[in-house]
Amino acid sequence: MKPFLICCLNFLFLFSCFDNEEIQAESHAFTISGTVLAPNNQDPISNAKVEAYLGATLKGNTLTNNTGEFNIALPAGAYRLKLSKGLFTTQQEINVNSETTLAHFTLDSLPKIGVVTGYYDNIENVLVDIGLVNPLTGFLYLILSMV
Hints:
With 147 residues, the protein is an alpha+beta fold.
């Protein structure tokens, strides 16, 4: 009888450790996914921080990959999705449930920024390469010629 009682107490203790709401929330997880693009809708923004807040509590966060894509797994609820890259920050309210499909949404408060693509030269390297600047000291050589 004593082993049976110990087994029942262990069984009760084991199931009293689980919180039913946590198990239910984890089993109903949804995935929010998207792509972050520059205002020209062509250039992906990599390493942008995407955070999901439920009230004031951070529930999930991730960084965009090199193609601007992200995925966050969240339980159902009303979230504030915050996107930030450098000094640029914007946010959007979203509802996540079994009937929600967000094919595309536009963030209304985009700042006016420009996107520049191309190549650049470091003038310091050019001056060192042609011999006008000492690479050890960074000083400009003065070339004096006597005529």
